Amino acid sequence: MQAKTRNVAPEAGDVACLRKGLDATDDVPLLETSYEIAKTVCKYFPPAQAADFMSTITESLKCTRDERAWAAEVWMTTFLEECGQLIYQEVPEVLHVLYSRLQTMQENTHRPLLLLAVYVLACFHHEPVVDSLLQKRLPLDRDAMELWSILGRSSLGVQVLKYLTQKLEAAGENSPGPHSAAHELDHSQAALESLTVCSMAEAFLQLRVCFLANAWGDCTGVLCWGISALVL
Known about the structure:
The protein is an all-alpha fold and 232 residues long. It has helices at 12-20, 27-42, 50-60, 66-83, 91-104, 111-124, 126-133, 142-153, 157-174, 181-185, 187-207, 213-231.
């Protein structure tokens, strides 16, 4: 590896001992051994290589051999669990890898695993995950809508909604007035901000089914105010 590892290499004896467990014929011991090997290796994995690693692992999910795809599942989930906290800077790239794989696996049986991976990533860093999803092209495609729905239905739903509300408030406060010089001079920036708000509005539409009516009603007022502050 070109990047430096996070610590010293694991003891050769430990890895050798775990490797013997791969000779097991029963599925449960084999699964436990594979998980322990992945967990040991991921402890020393350089965060800067997270996106490349995820790209390689998710490529294996397209394999028709069940054993190889199963091994990829173990490594991907273990990597996110062990290294998720440390890859803040790499979140946009990792999410791009997962999103790209979703688009090529529309009917694949491993699609739920990719959705789960995005959720696990968001558990560690929901703000950069939301920021990255807001960059997706409008109108949102099936994959982007499904990712918003997954986040909304999860335990992160309230956090995601609050963060979107904060972004709308900030966008409205920073928007120049309709007759200001800045408003006249920077049409491209205004258009970009309006597009961002439209993305947030679509995100709200996907999240709305995940909350009680009274909570959604409070957020609707913020949403309408944010849109009017930018586009009027």
